[in-house]
Design brief:
42% helix; two-stranded antiparallel ribbon; CbbQ_C; 10 strands
Length: 262
Amino acid sequence: MDIDTQVAPYYRAVGKEAEIFKHTYSSRIPFLLKGPTGTGKSRFIEFMAHELNQQLITVSCHEETSSTDLIGRYIIKGAETVWMDGPLTIAVKTGAILYLDEIAEARPDVIVAIHSLTDHRRELFIDKLGTTIKAHPHFMLVASFNPGYQRGFKELKPSTRQRFVAISFNYPEAKAEAEILAKETNILEADAKKLVNIANKIRNLTELGLTETVSTRLLVDAAKLMRSGLPKRLAVHSAVVEPLTDDLEVIEALNDLCDLMI
Ligand code: ADP
């Protein structure tokens, strides 16, 4: 769990997402950010929390994340058993924005737990305490979800999805993406453009059947390696190509392609 809204995060707008979010926040409707990994979803929510001057609590969900992890549990402290609020309960009580990153990865009881918070009731039932708490007026639930049109990704039920206002994130258009790389890493503009060209070339190679393709995050990593002095080709091989696949033939083909373009 991270709590951080102190530093103004850099976020390059790609559409009307900030406007939509502000309106959704003013009605406190739950918000869903859809899109592949590394497309700026988390950065966007950090930026919005800062803009709205709200505390942000982030939980990265994984297959073991349960409602107990979010709501809270009894822990043994010395000779006593004491109750400890989980991040969801803290956010509900204090009026923070709770960001459930990759919500579909979590165990199904998480969806059940947030149910009454996502409709007009705005309340949280804590079964272990037998209490129900009303959400603080500033509380808002935000989740991210990777729709993953290929295998291996978990789905979100339509009945859950329809409790959220949603927007789609994708790779920014070339100019914006190059700008992000330059701003994030101080890399030369010409190098930023080359990295974006490589990414777009690989993104269009759908026949490779990659589960996930080159994200802005991978490009930022490559740019950081280049910025710190690693030879450009090595930076691209290790930060862009290697994380994408373990298929040696594909790696070789992509490395060759990158060498021609960097
Ligand atoms: P996601 O949550 O979608 O997996 P992140 O928000 O963690 O992705 O983005 C990954 C990285 O890509 C960020 O750390 C940032 O460097 C960069 N990034 C992507 N999109 C943007 C954007 N629109 N503005 C600024 N940085 C961005």
